[in-house]
# Entry
Amino acid sequence: MTQPKTRRRVLIVEDEPALRLSYERYFRPRYDLVLAGTGAEAMAKLEETRPDVAVLDMRLPDTDGVALLRRIRASQPTLPVIITTAYMSIEPQLQFLDLPYSGYIIKPFRLDELGARIDAAV
# Structure
């Protein structure tokens, strides 16, 4: 008998309330969502919920995404992290800093594109 497929727990770190609401409405039926609006909230929820995948906005009110990605890597080095950004120039910076991530997506993007990246992240 096959085991029932478990839903992936996804931490989404996004400071824009309208985007968080869009993510919640679109992804709630598909994933167990954990939402955070700041870096501090993200770190607390990361430790508390142990997500399978994280989606990280690079611009946050209390920290920048690079600093937060460093903290995530220190805490959970193998966690797949998908970066969302409005800036195409982020990839060279992340490669230079040798911060592993599971891909990035440039805003604006379609939610189904983000969903495909979340599904592919391992």
